[in-house]
Amino acid sequence: MMEALCALTARMKHEGIRRLLVISGEDDWSLQQATALQQQLPGDWLKVGSQALPEPWCPPNALAKLLGREFQHAMFDARRGFDVAAFAALAGTLQAGSWLVLLTPPHDVWPQRPDEDALRWSESAQPFPAPHFVHHFCRTLADDPQTIIWRQAQPLTLPAFPAREAWHPANGEPEAEQAAILTQLADCPPGVVVVTAERGRGKSALAGMHIRQLNGTAIVTAPARGATDVMAAFAGEQFRFMAPDALLASQARADWLIVDEAAAIPSPVLQKLVARFPRALLTTTVQGYEGTGRGFLLKFCARFPHLRQLTLSRPIRWAQGCPLEAIVSEALLFADNSLTRLPAGELDYASVEQDAWQTNPALPVAMYQLLSSAHYRTSPLDLRRMMDAPGQHFACAHSDAGLAGALWLVDEGGLSDTLSRAVWAGYRRPRGNLVAQSLAAHGGSPLAATLIGRRVTRIAVHPSRQRDGIGQALIAHARTAAEGCDYLSVSFGYTAELWRFWQRCGFTLVRIGAHREASSGCYTAMALSPLTAAGEQLTAHEHQRLCRDGQWLAAWIDEKLPLPVSSDTMLSDDDWDELASFAFAHRSFIAAVGSLNRLLLNVELSLPLLRGRLQRQSEAQLCHDAGLSGRKALLVRLRQETAQALMALDASRASQRRTLVQQLQFF
Ligand SMILES: CC(=O)SCCNC(=O)CCNC(=O)[C@H](O)C(C)(C)COP(=O)(O)OP(=O)(O)OC[C@H]1O[C@@H](n2cnc3c(N)ncnc32)[C@H](O)[C@@H]1OP(=O)(O)O
Ligand SMILES: Nc1ncnc2c1ncn2[C@@H]1O[C@H](COP(=O)(O)OP(=O)(O)OP(=O)(O)O)[C@@H](O)[C@H]1O
């Protein structure tokens, strides 16, 4: 048997492919078999798993450090937990002629086994079983003739795989597809060129080669700099990188703008960037472990009259049709089929629950694919959360021809009074509950996180059916289905268009972040749509607070805010609470900006650091002027100056508030 395995391995190398071998059985048995294989087949045998294994071993969360490197053979240990993004990433590091050996529990008991990975994609403190994912994964394996499954108490059998043609690895010179595109780019009239491809097709290398051969200047931008290493290596000295937010804020000019992973940048930002350069080359992955964006990039492209769209289809580091790449893509739903069907016709709206992964898997698969084609951040973590995490809810709009819209919501809130107050004062920040906690931590309602909310995490409507009222109808459906909830909420990267949508869905703006996200170039906005009297009260209170603070926030946010102007400068009771929570507890500075500005209008003291910071003098400058060691020391002094001002205004009220907020840390 081992001889046959060695012969097959040699053939895989010749054919430029890699394969998955699953060993399913009791913990000790499967490890023993994997070790025996390792002894027979020479190679690196990198092992990835949460429990220590003989070297070379790496826990899943440290694998990112090894990306970019290549290995011959690897083992992934999924006996206790299955970090599927690490599994996919490991597959991506394997050279032609490699085996990826996957250890799993026996398949009949696996669905009931607690999965340690659940701690990453849920707020649970204990691992729990993830049956929907396990069933889906095992079904995918069973349907794949190229994957080998070795079950305990059964012999290892190797099917007779048909022969493939010989493979020739890339050598650093442009591959045929790359060369053809480079020729087009070299002789390109002004306009936009978009290159889309699946992972590992040589897009980044192509962009780098283009920069190197360029008779002019280029600026590279991308949501994450680390992702541009390959491009930098192929570009050589001409490589010049600027993050999207920095580029937007600058006056930089060049002959070419190169945007890596363009779909990860919101269309309005991308459009502003592209408009500044005579020529732009946009690249984007249409499948991957970090999500996609094909449909929405295409929609963006439709706005440009002179646009060329090109694709790279052949993998570089292994042969086309590699069985390992194919099974990973199947299992993690990387293929983006959401746009191949046009969902014309009358629509039905329906709630969808997680058991649909068992009863009607095609529907949630299509929903996941539509959501990931619209949201670049969708990752295998989301797939696992969607399938098995508690508190998830879904709705869809579909016609006989296919899926037109998908909505994903998650339950939030319901924290105890004391915990919510502690979050408000900045003492605690438990995991999860994004909007519910943010309302408490950044808003003006200490009990905000006690209410029950349901947050829209993702919504997407098929590009061919947008502006047809489907998004609005999905939200209306969710509202009727949200029994027992005080409000629906959403957190999104603010653009005027998207805000218009949420406004039309009946949402009220309650918070806007003070920094542009470097990756998207947008401010994070949060909005609520109340469902109960308590929800109404919270929404009205937070909206009013945001309006009161609007003029002060405007100094921090260079985006026109859709808020009525308020000139209220009185220090209210709420202001006293917030100021005390900043001065005497741990509330963040930015959450108290409005109250702090009103405080300064009401006291005569000099308070140089506070006044300086509120006038947006930089932290570094203030630290330098005051001889402080850094941001932490500055924050302590800002809190002290606030305390001083409160004492000067009303010493007994200040002391009383101090006692109250300081009690919030003990519960
Ligand atoms: C948490 C999150 O998911 S935030 C991200 C939201 N999702 C995305 O951005 C993915 C890509 N976009 C989409 O899938 C869709 O465009 C959605 C979900 C934003 C909107 O869905 P649609 O079905 O197109 O919206 P719908 O037709 O119901 O629009 C209702 C109203 O919102 C407003 N609106 C919707 N889209 C836009 C837009 N692009 N620009 C301006 N206003 C808009 C309009 O007022 C519209 O009414 P009108 O057409 O009568 O003027
Ligand atoms: N012509 C070439 N010769 C040799 N190696 C190449 C060539 N083109 C690309 N590569 C290598 O192949 C790998 C994949 O290429 P690249 O990173 O450009 O692909 P990509 O499509 O941008 O992938 P991803 O979507 O994963 O970022 C890289 O290791 C790169 O160095």
UniProtKB/TrEMBL annotation:
Gene Ontology BP, a term: tRNA acetylation
InterPro entries per the UniProt record, alphabetical: Acyl_CoA_acyltransferase, GNAT_dom, P-loop_NTPase, TcmA/NAT10_helicase, TmcA/NAT10/Kre33, TmcA/NAT10_N, TmcA_C_sf, TmcA_tRNA_bind
Domain (tRNA(Met) cytidine acetyltransferase TmcA tRNA-binding): residue spans on this chain: 535-651
Annotated catalysed reactions: cytidine(34) in elongator tRNA(Met) + acetyl-CoA + ATP + H2O = N(4)-acetylcytidine(34) in elongator tRNA(Met) + ADP + phosphate + CoA + H(+)
N-acetyltransferase domain location: 367-475, 477-531
Chief location bin: cytoplasm
Cited CDD domains: NAT_SF
GO cellular component terms listed in the entry, alphabetical order: cytoplasm
GO molecular function: 18S rRNA cytidine N-acetyltransferase activity; ATP binding; tRNA binding; tRNA cytidine N4-acetyltransferase activity
UniProt key word tRNA processing: yes
Binding locations of ATP: 178, 317
Binding site for acetyl-CoA: 459-461, 497, 504
Cellular location(s): Cytoplasm
Keyword Cytoplasm carried by entry: yes
Pfam families: GNAT_acetyltr_2 (PF13718), NAT10_TcmA_helicase (PF05127), TmcA_N (PF08351), tRNA_bind_3 (PF17176)
Keywords associated with the record: Acyltransferase, ATP-binding, Cytoplasm, Nucleotide-binding, RNA-binding, Transferase, tRNA processing, tRNA-binding
Enzyme Commission code(s) on record: 2.3.1.193
Domain TmcA/NAT10 N-terminal: 3-152
Family per similarity comment: Belongs to the TmcA family.
Role description: Catalyzes the formation of N(4)-acetylcytidine (ac(4)C) at the wobble position of tRNA(Met), by using acetyl-CoA as an acetyl donor and ATP (or GTP).
UniProt-recorded name of the protein: tRNA(Met) cytidine acetyltransferase TmcA
Protein's organism: Trabulsiella odontotermitis
Lineage summary: Bacteria, Pseudomonadati, Pseudomonadota, Gammaproteobacteria, Enterobacterales
